[in-house]
Design goal:
The strands form 3 sheets. A 3-stranded antiparallel sheet has the order 1-3-2. A 3-stranded antiparallel sheet has the order 4-6-9. Strands 5-8-7 form a 3-stranded antiparallel sheet. 28% of the residues are buried. The chain is α+β, with helices and mostly antiparallel strands. Helix 1 crosses helix 3. Helices cover 30% and strands 21% of the residues. It has 2 domains: 76 residues, RNA 2'-phosphotransferase, Tpt1/KptA family, N-terminal domain (Arc Repressor Mutant, subunit A); 86 residues, Alpha-Beta Barrel (ADP-ribosylation fold).
Length: 190
């Protein structure tokens, strides 16, 4: 088994996320209605991608186990991405009794005018992703460009407006939309 150094682990995690969230059918991977795939089928799908022929089941389990954001869930011989899907899946997320007073959403500054007019929308994904910490929001927003702002979301406002907030992991919360009036303030990191 080839060693799974940090660079390989990150590269594999990104590819797993792509397969489990966005393009499973492109490589013959079938997901259940609630997003599960057989681990062995994920290995086979990865082997169809140039540069990933080395992947073994143990690598996938290691990526899932070591992922700090809890992106993956493993049950027996099955794995799924917990959140972030653009393909239709029906994962039942818990609705926590108590929410943090604030949640955070990182985005490129170029999106700010549109967001302040229309709110935070899921775009191509099924849900709006909200982070538990400003740091996580900065990290997420930085994937889309260097000029990131963090939107501070008032969770009480969301509830009063009739929007439910679900907990995908300890660090990621989900909502169908965040209306502009629930954006409490904007933070410019740095």
């Amino acid at each position: 088994m080839p060693p799974l150094d940090e660079a390989r682990r990150v590269r594999l995690s990104k590819k797993m996320a792509g397969l489990l969230r966005h393009y499973p059918h492109r490589y013959g991977l079938r997901l259940t209605r609630d997003g599960w795939a057989r681990i062995d089928d994920l290995v086979e799908a990865l082997h169809r991608i140039p540069g990933f022929e080395w992947v073994e089941r143990s690598h996938i389990l290691e990526v899932a186990r070591r992922d700090e954001k809890g992106r993956y869930e493993v049950r027996g011989n099955y794995i799924r991405a917990r959140y972030g899907h653009s393909v239709p899946v029906a994962i039942e997320y818990p609705e926590p009794r108590e929410l943090p007073r604030e949640l955070y959403h990182g985005t490129p500054a170029r999106n700010l005018e549109s967001i302040m007019a229309r709110g935070i929308l899921p775009g191509r994904r099924l849900w709006v992703h909200l982070s538990a910490t400003p740091g996580d929001a900065v990290e997420t927003g930085s994937r889309h460009g260097p000029d990131v702002v963090v939107l501070v979301v008032d969770t009480e406002c969301l509830r009063r407006a009739g929007y439910r907030v679900y907990k995908a992991t300890d660090r990621v919360y989900l909502a169908k939309r965040v209306p502009p009036e629930c954006i409490e303030r904007v933070i410019k990191p740095g």
